Each structure stands twice: as C-alpha cells, then as structure tokens.
Amino acid sequence: MMTTADNANRSVVHLFSIAISGLLSLYSMIAGYSLLALDHWTITELAVGLLRIAAGPLAVLALLRWGWNSDPVDRTLTRMGTAFEAYFANSSTKSKIRSIVLVTMLSLLLELVLIRWLASVFPVYSFYKNFTMLACFLGLGAGYAVAQRERCAPALVLPMLTLFVVVITLLRYDTGNLYLVFSIGWLSSFDFLVYYLLGASFIVCACICYPVGQLCGKLLHSSNSLNAYSLNLIGSALGVAALFLMSLYWLPPVVWFAVTGGMILLFVLPRDAFLQIGTASFCVLLTILAWPVQPETQRIYSPYQLLERTAKPDGLMQILSGGSYYQKVYNFSENRRGVESDTDRYVRTYYEFPYNFKKAPERVAIVGAGSGNDVATALRMGAAHVDAIEIDPAIAFLGTKYHPERPYDDSRVNLSINDARNFFRTADQQYDLIVYGVLDSHTALSHASNLRVDSYVYTREGLTEAFRLLKPDGVLAVSFTLVNDALGFKLSKILREQPGAGKPLAVRVLYDSARTTAFIVRKGGDVTMPKTGPVASIGFTDVSDYFAQAYPESSVPTDDWPFFYMVERAYPITYMIALGIILLLSYIFVRQTVGFSDPIDRSYLPFFFLGSGFMLVETKAVTELGLHLGGTWFVIAAAIMLVLVMAYLANLLVTRTGLRLVGPAYLGLFVSLLVGYGLATSHEHWMFGPPQLQLAVNCLVLTIPLFFSGIVFSSLIGNPEINISTAFAYNLMGALFGGVMEYNSMYFGFAFLYLLAMGFYFLAFGFSLKPRSLLQPAE
C-alpha cells in the first residue's frame, strides 16, 4: 500500500476518473437521444448507436471497479512514483537545473495548447476562455504545493491528456446534436449541459497539469531560489515563443500536441519505467488529432480560430469558424446579372446599399474585409482606391485564393492585415466611404481576458476615430447582426452623437438574419432612405425612429468598458453561475489534493496576493497594449512576453544587487499603479508627442508595475526560510483568484482592475511586514 503522503496522487486519479466518466455519460445520453430521434434504424446504425450508449455505463463501471478500488490505483501510482523518483535521484544537479527551463516551458505550453484547442472544438470554450487557464493554474498550484511531500508521477500526464482528447473529439464529431447544444446552449434551455461540460473539463485540465506542477516544484529546489526563478521565467518565455511560431505558420493541433507530448517523452520520461505507456498514449493522441474527421473540409488553424472551408450548393466557398457559419462568397460580376436567383439579387442589393449614399467613391475603407465580398462590391461600384482591413491572415488568404471575382488581385486594392483601431489611428488620409462588414467575433482577445477581438472596434472612441477620417460629406456604414436591439441602440447613439454628423439611418437589411441592420451616417448631413431603385422594392425596412430612442449613457461601450455585446453593465448570470461552479470545484480539488489539515502560514500569504494583483495588472496591460498597438495576435504575444521580461529584469536586479528592496518596491508599485489608473481614465490627456513617444510611454506605464511587483516577489523568495515550491503554489492560487476577480471589469470597467490590484498589493504589503528592516542583504 502507498503511504499517506501519496494520497494526493490517488485523489487526482479519482477526480479525473469521475470527470471523464461524466463526460462519457454525457456522450452516451446524447447518443441515445440521437438514436431515438431516427424514424427507423439499419442493423449497423442500431449496433453503433448501442455501442455509443454503452460508453457511459462502461465508464462508470470502470470508475467503480478500478478508479475507486484503492489497491490497483495505489500499486500503479507506487510503481510510477518509485520509478521516477529513482530516475530523478540519479540525475545530476546540473541536469536538474537545465530541466527547470524545459519543464516550465512545458507547463506554459501545455496550458496554452489546452486553451487554444478547446476553444477550436466548441464555441463555449471561447466564450469562457479563461476558465481553462484557471483550471491549469489550479492543477499547477496544487502540484507545487505537494511537490516536497509526494512522489512525482509525470507518467500520468500523457494517458490523461490522450483520454481527454479522445472524449472531447467524440463529443464534437460523433454527436452533431451535442455540438448544436454547446454552440447555442447559453441562449437556450440547455444551460445545464454547458455548465456540466465546463465543470468536468475544468477538473480534467487541473488533473492533467497537476503532475507537471509537481515536477516543477521538485526541480526548483535544485538551485537557489532566485536562480531557479530566473530559469522559470526563461522557460515561460520559451513556451510563449513556441506557440507564437506555431501560430505564425498556422500549424494544426497535431503539431501543438506533438511538441508538448514529445517534450514529456524525450526529456521527462527518457528512463522511466512507464515510458512505454507514455509512448503508446502519445501515438494514440497524434492519431486522433490527425484523423480526417471531415475529409471534405479544409481546416485551417489561423492564429485566432479554426476556419473550415466548405462549398455552398452553387460550388462557391463557405467558411465556418469553429464549426459555426461565418462567411459566404458570392459572385456578382457583371456577366452574371441575367442569371442571378432572387436570393442573389437580394444579397447584391445588401452589399451595394452603402453606395446609394456615396456614388462612385474615390477612396473606400472596408473594416472586416474577410473573403472579399465587400471589396469586390466597392470595385464594381467605381471606387478608385480600396483599403481592405482584415485581422485574420487566413481568411484573407482564402479570399485571395477562392473568391471568383479576385478582388484582392486588383491594383486598386490595398490589403492590410491589421486591427481596425490601429489602422485608423495610423491612417494619413481621408475617405469618401467607410464600410464595416458584419463583424461578430467569437474569438477572445487573449487567454487572460474575456474581451473579443472586435470589442474595441465598436466602442465610442473606436467609431469616433473612423468618423474623423471621413471627408466632408463622407459616409460611414455599419452593418451588424443584432443579437438584441440593445446593440442597435448603442450603435445609433454613438453615430448620431459624432461631431458634425447628420441624423443616421437604420435599416433592417435581413442579410443572413432577420435582425441584421445597417446604420448609415453622413458627415455634415442627414441620411434618408432611397425612394427609387432596387432598395425601394427589395424589402428593406427603415427602423431609424425606433433606434433613435434614448439609451442609458452608462451602457454605451467605451475603451474602458468595451463590452459591446452586453446589454448593460452587470454581472452576467451565466458567468456568475459558471464562476460559482469553478470556485466550488477548486475548493474540492484543493481539499482532496493539498488538504486543509495544516494551518495557513502567514509568511506565504504575500505570494497569494501578489499573484492576484499580478493577474489583474497583466490582464490590463495585455488589453491596453492591444488597444494602443492593435488587438492582433502577435501584439498580444509580444505584450505577454514583455510582462515576462519585466519580471526577469526585476529578479536580475535583486540577484545582482543582493538587496531585499521590499519597501521601496512597494512604494514604486503603488505609485506606478496610480499613474496607470490616471492613464486608463483619461486617454486623451496622455496623447502627446509623436506616436513613437506615445508608444514608449504606454508600454512603460502599463508594464512597470509588474517590474516593481517582480522585485517584491524576488526579494521575498530570496529569504532562506521560504520554500520556493510552496511560494509558487500560493502565487498560482492567487493568480487563479485574480482571474476570477477580472470579471469585475464587466461591471466597473477595466480601469477598476488597477484599484482592485492595489487592494491586493496592499494586503500583500501588510502580510510582508516584519519587525526587521525591509532593506537588507538577501541570503
């Protein structure tokens, strides 16, 4: 039997077994529903359906027979732990120190890969994107906490990861009804299934990351604390760089997991007795990910999302995003006017609608140019020059290659792979017409934020920047599929309050949805509905008076509160329920792994609150830099890298000087947070000097708090009385709590995160105070 010190590993296996069995039971339930929904069955369909239905009960049986039978679990874990500990003990100190970089890189890469893969499988993971991040923090933190008292079993990672990928793949591609539920579940009566999926996945991801946290915690003791922390930061930076390179070349998940799993096989388990199990799991994992589940579909993993290229009945391209309809391509070339269907004529009228108010414009800007329909329309309507702005390079590539009118090949078109805000902020010319395509991104700005990549496009400041670039009598056209009319009220209010704007026109154009509405505004004059021509007979409805109603100022999206998709400032009930589930599951996970038998050591509480504050300031820095530099994927990656650089420089300073600069660092931290808060609440007052100076000031103000907090962290772990793995455990648990607190921005705005961070840092400061001097040499 295992010693009581190994109970945490057994608890992780139990929790993983429960969660996986729950997911398989969900699969069985949906499979049974699908079978009953058929009018008649063939023998094959019946046999396959019964096998699917049996998956859940078999999983529960295995759980009861093996997962809860302590003897086989204990024997297996004992062998795993003993085998790896023997290998670990025989490794040289120099080898262990080098491994700190590798295993830290592995932990961050595993976290980022899980976040990105799950978001590409089910849209619900995109809407709750940072939940996967919080699960990884939980697993890693628990692993760090027990690193010194538990035998490490990294051989668990690949079998658990493989089984999770298999089950999620079955849920996604073998149950079409389930995919529909998890695509629209939060808008329907299937909320329970969405929460069930999120909760089970949360536990599974935490279990997968737990052994990696254990290993990281053990390795950190191979060197002095400050040196180990430097290596930890270098490994984190390498993990970000690895995913950056894979995103740069649009590599698929099979490569992401091959790199991650390969690191475990080649560097973590090279002489482990369970290497064969890891190798077998690795092969199954890659086979499942490489399996052509939809051979008729071209799948491209852009830096933002999964794109699937399929064909419409007319043979032209249709693009899905994460399995949901995203864009269609149309051919409206002049030689097809006589053979168009009624639907095609309607769609053509929609695309040509803005040109009723600006005939043959000389210069046009198109936001969300996508696969090229809007660009092709601008060329047909006589535009002399078109600036096409598209943030996703993969969508632009598909439009360039497959649009029948070849709009991107025209010499009059300038394609800019850029964020709309950044493009307009740096533009040096004015436009006759600016057209916003039907943008509705389901992609989060980053794994640390619940903002969508287009959130800053529809803020008051964002639309104002575009409106300023209009020539006198220029026209701005914004089309949007209104999930609710509140979005229309927001757009109408922002447009009619633009300086020099006439009365805007709002028209139900019904493109792709009965709620798609176009908002047209002119600089220096009103816009009225055309009385003649195709628009008069096509069925468009003028709803300008309806959307001209008063709307609360507090719910208008701004750069501080860029939640355009929310009806009003509120704590969304769906998020609050999900967060409640996450907090409950976190409590259960910590209770089962770390336990609460030992009292909380006051000397480690600063690390918890430093983690909470760090998470909030990092979120603010990433979103704010995305606002100033453009919310593109490489800007976000660069922002995260800059955060790590600041922490590394802080640690280097403490290491080289030998001083514990806790007191001065806290002072610098609070001052820098106040300056950052001032910047966040008064953008216009900080826009001085050339753009390069503005950029430098913004980067410094947004990241300097992390430099000072890094000095505090490094100074504290330099204390020989501090156990570094325990400090990291508290820090990661604090980061998890900070990630939960980030949702306060949905009510108070992002500037409030500075105030919240100051509160956490104040608590950290209070628990850091000791009778001895705060300025003394580190040991």
Low-confidence stretches: 1-5, 184-189, 771-779
Number of strands: 14
- Average pLDDT works out at 86
The radius of gyration computed from the alpha-carbon positions, rounded to a whole number of angstroms, is 28 Å
Shape: globular
Number of helices: 28
Characterize the main sheet.
Answer: 8 strands, mixed
How far is the first residue's CA from the last residue's CA? 41 Å
Q: Helicity range of the residues?
A: 55-70%
What does this structure look like?
With 779 residues, this protein is of the alpha/beta class. It is built from 28 helices and 14 strands. The strands form 3 sheets. An 8-stranded mixed β-sheet has the order 7-6-5-8-9-11-10-12, with helices on both faces. A 4-stranded antiparallel β-sheet has the order 1-2-3-4, covered by helices on one side. Strands 13-14 form a two-stranded antiparallel sheet. The two termini are 41 Å apart.
Spell out the blueprint of helices and strands:
Blueprint: H1 7-37, H2 43-67, H3 70-90, H4 93-121, H5 123-127, H6 129-145, H7 157-173, H8 176-184, H9 191-220, H10 225-248, H11 253-268, H12 275-290, E1 298-301, E2 306-311, E3 317-321, E4 324-328, H13 342-352, E5 363-367, H14 373-380, E6 385-390, H15 393-402, E7 413-417, H16 420-426, E8 431-436, H17 460-468, E9 470-481, H18 485-496, E10 505-508, E11 516-522, H19 534-538, E12 541-542, H20 544-547, H21 573-593, H22 605-629, H23 633-657, E13 659-661, H24 662-681, H25 691-717, H26 724-741, H27 745-748, H28 752-768, E14 775-777
Parallel strand pairs: 5-6, 5-8, 6-7, 8-9
Antiparallel strand pairs: 1-2, 2-3, 3-4, 9-11, 10-11, 10-12, 13-14
Helix pairs in contact: 1-2, 1-7, 1-9, 4-6, 4-9, 4-10, 4-11, 6-9, 6-21, 6-26, 7-9, 7-12, 9-21, 9-26, 10-23, 11-12, 22-23, 22-25, 22-26, 22-28, 23-25, 24-25, 24-28
